[in-house]
């Protein structure tokens, strides 16, 4: 009965807009820590939501709740007293009152509990999972034939042949992304992880994004592993998608983010052993952007240093950070840990010797974060179950924190697979009030990050498509004299995914095109979740920037200091969304999609990184391709620098000479290309003969 109560509680929480389907199922499962429970809740709750209007009809038609007022009232709960009193049953109210306090548990409403139980009674293959002698079961069985009769009547009335016809239909893509939940389990806890990640993370439209966890593996090893397993690699995601029509085992390297691979969405995660053991992680491309943007300059510097060391220009240990003196990242809002583990992977290793401090306020989600750290083998992360806002930005222990990730709770309006259409939406005014409250909360979190004494780079991101949570938060920051006086400004486009075409909305930036161009937007038509990324950089030596025109106008007239963040605590869980106000949603998706997946959208890191750009050019070279147009435009300046550097470099043989040392990946690609050429040559000569 406990499972039914808890599933009923999830339905109640959904009715009260306390979170997303997935978020609430996982939160409830985390309370019990029973392996596989998250997936079980998710499956049952989704099924109940699909049947809910029909079950409501059955309850009304059979008058079940009125005839059995205490049947769905759990005895040992305070709520049971209220519910029992409401139902008019003195006996059950008395019983509830006598229950000792220590056993008091939250109780689902009779309506939600009845929905879950009727679902199992009528529609689940296994039927009700209660012992045959259980009182509730015995009573419900008495109503079964009346309920089934009404069910058949309803099928005839609605002209549907099967029970499935009585459900609220799910869009194909959403339905297929949920199909694998609970199936193909190798180890029982994989089922929960799959439920957590499989529904939304990593799978967008036709693509399943997988990040190579470089804490456990390398991109080269991953490529080799896939190819050995009979998978064909494609240079471009679009080509891979075209090939996927006829071949299931295809993959591509992402054009913008190095450790990212694209696979066809139809690929089943539980069948990929490298996913099972944490060498591959399911993570949407957009969700990889914040850590990438935060750390690319540091990575480029590290590559420069490594190249100089390899060339003998600096000593083997020179410029290496001393023990404990590496880069310090703070992830302000970390669970479930996608961005934390990515940041940890990017800065691991001697050259950067980086560490991440990961804050998570929510206890249940903190457990999820710790699981993820274990799975990713992220030993360079210190997780803290703490409210980020309670940390002192001038705490001497945190003075080495230079880079911060700020990915606060948001409306989640950018996530297409959230099943929002299964839940009745709140009135528009209520939705707008919630978005405004979220925007204030986000402003409070990002403001707190900017106050950290050592901070020089702060990336702000949301999986929302609403301007109030995106550009307008940025505009509020830029409007604040306090931050401008500290030297904060927006990082320019060439540091923030320069070759990603979809940028911020100009109107939301008070008409300032430079600001809009400095930030990144993503939409599902780009092959990602809806997402937003902005990067603030501090330059204490440069004169403070001016407040941008329109900044005050764009800023809601709410003082971010006066927010009761705790009051929002439940409302702002990850991925929780008010349904999109229709007009805004339509406007967002009507915007034409840039060709993000097209050839050559290569992400240039910092232009000054000759080594990094050289790596990219070399990759194009070994594959026998000229850089394709969009990348070429943006990378032209950087490529020129590289070409100049290459020209200026002493020729082979001299000290520190020769072409830049090829990275493992370049070597791998070169080797591969050579083999391909040999094969082709052999084939051609054979044909010639
Ligand atoms: C959008 S999620 C973060 C997702 C995460 N960055 C990732 O990529 O996996 C926001 C998280 O912030 C947490 N959170 C919200 N307010 C917080 C606060 N004041 N301090 C610490 N964590 C907070 C929420 O509990 C939630 O887990």
TrEMBL record:
Record field: compositional bias (Basic residues): 599-608
GO CC terms in record: nucleolus
SUPFAM superfamilies linked: S-adenosyl-L-methionine-dependent methyltransferases
InterPro entries (alphabetical): MeTrfase_RsmB-F_NOP2_cat (IPR049560), MeTrfase_RsmB-F_NOP2_dom (IPR001678), NSUN5_7_fdxn-like (IPR049561), RCMT (IPR023267), SAM-dependent_MTases_sf (IPR029063)
Domain SAM-dependent MTase RsmB/NOP-type: 198-539
Entry's Gene Ontology molecular function annotations: RNA binding; RNA methyltransferase activity
GO BP: rRNA base methylation
Annotated Pfam families: Methyltr_RsmB-F, NSUN5_fdxn-like
Active site: 463
Compositional bias segments (type: Low complexity): 631-643
Positions with biased composition (Basic and acidic residues): 670-681
Coiled coil: 133-164
Disordered, as annotated region: 592-689
Keyword terms of this UniProt record: Coiled coil, Methyltransferase, RNA-binding, S-adenosyl-L-methionine, Transferase
Binding residues for S-adenosyl-L-methionine: 360, 387, 407
Family: Belongs to the class I-like SAM-binding methyltransferase superfamily. RsmB/NOP family.
The protein's name in its UniProt record: SAM-dependent MTase RsmB/NOP-type domain-containing protein
Organism for this UniProt entry: Rhodotorula graminis (strain WP1)
């Amino acid at each position: 009965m406990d499972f039914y109560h808890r599933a009923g509680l999830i339905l109640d929480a959904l009715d009260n807009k306390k979170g997303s389907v997935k978020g609430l199922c996982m939160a409830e499962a985390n309370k019990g820590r029973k392996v596989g429970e998250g997936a079980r809740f998710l499956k049952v709750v989704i099924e109940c939501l699909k049947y809910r209007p029909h079950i409501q009809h059955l309850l009304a038609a059979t008058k079940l709740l009125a005839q059995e007022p205490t049947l769905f009232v759990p005895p040992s709960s305070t709520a049971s007293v209220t519910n029992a009193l409401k139902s008019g049953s003195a006996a059950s109210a008395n019983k509830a009152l006598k229950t000792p306090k220590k056993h008091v548990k939250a109780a689902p409403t009779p309506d939600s509990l009845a929905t879950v139980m009727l679902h199992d009674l009528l529609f689940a293959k296994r039927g009700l999972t209660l012992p045959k002698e259980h009182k509730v079961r015995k009573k419900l069985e008495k109503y079964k034939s009346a309920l089934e009769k009404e069910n058949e009547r309803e099928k005839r009335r609605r002209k549907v042949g099967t029970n499935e016809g009585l459900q609220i239909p799910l869009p194909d893509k959403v339905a297929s992304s949920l199909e694998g939940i609970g199936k193909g389990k190798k180890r029982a806890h994989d089922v929960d992880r799959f439920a957590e990640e499989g529904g939304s993370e990593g799978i967008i439209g036709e693509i399943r994004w997988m990040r190579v966890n470089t804490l456990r593996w390398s991109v080269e090893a991953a490529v080799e592993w896939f190819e050995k397993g009979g998978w064909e690699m494609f240079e471009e995601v679009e080509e891979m998608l075209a090939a996927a029509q006829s071949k299931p085992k295809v993959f591509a390297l992402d054009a913008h983010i190095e450790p990212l691979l694209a696979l066809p969405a139809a690929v089943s995660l539980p069948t990929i052993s490298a996913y099972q053991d944490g060498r591959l992680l399911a993570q949407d491309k957009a969700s990889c952007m914040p850590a990438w943007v935060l750390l690319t300059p540091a990575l480029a510097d590290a590559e420069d240093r490594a190249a100089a060391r390899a060339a003998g220009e600096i000593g083997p240990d020179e410029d290496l950070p001393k023990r404990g003196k590496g880069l310090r990242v703070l992830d302000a809002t970390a669970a479930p840990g996608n961005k934390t583990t990515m940041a940890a992977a990017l800065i691991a290793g001697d050259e950067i010797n980086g560490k991440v401090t990961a804050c998570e306020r929510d206890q249940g989600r903190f457990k999820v974060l710790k699981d993820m750290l274990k799975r990713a083998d992220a030993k360079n992360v210190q997780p803290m179950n703490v409210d980020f806002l309670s940390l002192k930005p001038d705490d001497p222990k945190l003075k080495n924190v230079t880079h911060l990730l700020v990915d606060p709770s948001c409306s989640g309006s950018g996530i297409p697979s959230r099943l929002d259409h299964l839940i009745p939406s709140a009135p528009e005014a209520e939705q707008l009030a919630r978005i405004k409250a979220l925007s204030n909360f986000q402003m409070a979190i990002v403001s707190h990050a900017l106050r950290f004494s050592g901070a020089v780079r702060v990336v702000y991101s949301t999986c929302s498509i609403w301007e109030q949570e995106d550009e307008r938060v940025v505009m509020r920051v830029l409007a604040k004299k306090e931050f401008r006086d500290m030297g904060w400004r927006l990082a320019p486009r060439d540091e923030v995914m320069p070759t990603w075409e979809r940028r911020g909305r100009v109107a939301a930036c008070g008409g300032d095109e430079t600001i809009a161009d400095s930030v990144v937007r993503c939409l599902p038509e780009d092959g990602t979740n809806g997402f937003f990324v902005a990067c603030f950089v501090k330059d204490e030596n440069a004169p403070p920037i001016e407040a941008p025109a329109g900044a005050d106008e764009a800023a809601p007239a709410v003082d971010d200091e006066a927010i009761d963040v705790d009051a929002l605590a439940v409302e702002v869980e990850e991925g929780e969304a008010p349904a999109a106000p229709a007009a805004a949603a339509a406007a967002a998706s009507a915007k034409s999609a840039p060709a993000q997946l097209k050839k050559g959208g290569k992400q240039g890191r910092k232009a000054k990184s000759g080594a990094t750009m050289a790596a990219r050019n070399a990759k194009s070279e070994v594959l026998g391709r000229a850089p394709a147009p969009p990348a070429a435009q943006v990378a032209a300046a950087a490529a020129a620098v590289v070409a100049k550097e290459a020209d200026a470099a002493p020729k082979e043989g001299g000290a520190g000479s020769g072409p830049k040392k090829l990275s493992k990946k370049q070597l791998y690609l070169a080797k591969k290309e050579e083999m391909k050429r040999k094969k082709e040559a052999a084939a051609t000569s054979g044909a010639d003969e």
